[in-house]
Design brief:
This protein is of the alpha/beta class and about 240 residues long. It has an 8-stranded parallel beta barrel with strand order 1-2-4-5-6-7-8-9, surrounded by 6 helices. Strand 5, helix 5 and strand 6 form a beta-alpha-beta unit. Helix 4 packs across helix 5. The radius of gyration is 17 Å and the shape is globular. The two termini are about 20 Å apart. The chain binds SN-glycerol-3-phosphate and magnesium ion. The site of magnesium ion has 3 residues, from strand 2.
Amino acid sequence: MSGRRLLCIGHRGAMGHAPENTLLSFRRALEMGAPCVEADVYYVDHHLMVFHDDRLERTTNGAGYLIDHDFDTLRSLDAGNGERIPTLAEVFETIDRRAGVNIELKGPGTARPVAGLIATLRKQGWPDHLILVSSFNHRELETVRGIDPFIRIGVLIAGSPVDAAAFAASFGAWSVHISLAFIDRGFVEDAHSRGLKVFVFTVNHPDEIYRMERLGVDGVFTNYPERVLSRQEGDGVIGWG
Ligand code: G3P
Ligand code: MG
């Protein structure tokens, strides 16, 4: 057993076990006991669609750019095992406050509709501490922050800019999310000294999980939630903490 508990974030649900970003994948993550899940989001034809790529080919039987299609066409596609591309609202219905949700804003124009959905979710009883909005697109995050300063923000970093943690802290972010390729102890210590949580993507191999524990990171995005959870004792706490 490990001494240090990593927050286990089911990447696109539990994409090592089910088609990514489908309701089946999010249900699998819940069944495994993941305290948090991550979902990628585009805004297409006035709907928030949970999808990772900008094109359809890799994960569906469709073709072309996601945003060039209307809602009914997207819903007619097979996203794997007969699953449909879900809306973000459907993902929240499925999770039903049994895990924290990280909404990763992928496409342009996602900030406003996501902030709108979160306002609705609040009225339905979702507490702020179960929702975390992140993006590589920091302008979208700025828009979210401008609409609703109470939404928790995670700054996603591409590469390893020298001032990344300082930027995230100045932004008022709650967490900073960095690739496994660039994480090191200096980054963790810098982020922690600024009051930021550090989450690392995408951590699947047991050796990497062990290394993240040793580095003192706070949580990992993983395609295989059981590999992180099996190293931990007792019932996990739901959500982002
Ligand atoms: O949010 C963490 C991670 O999912 C970011 O990269 O490409 O898997 O969405 P990607
Ligand atoms: Mg993602």
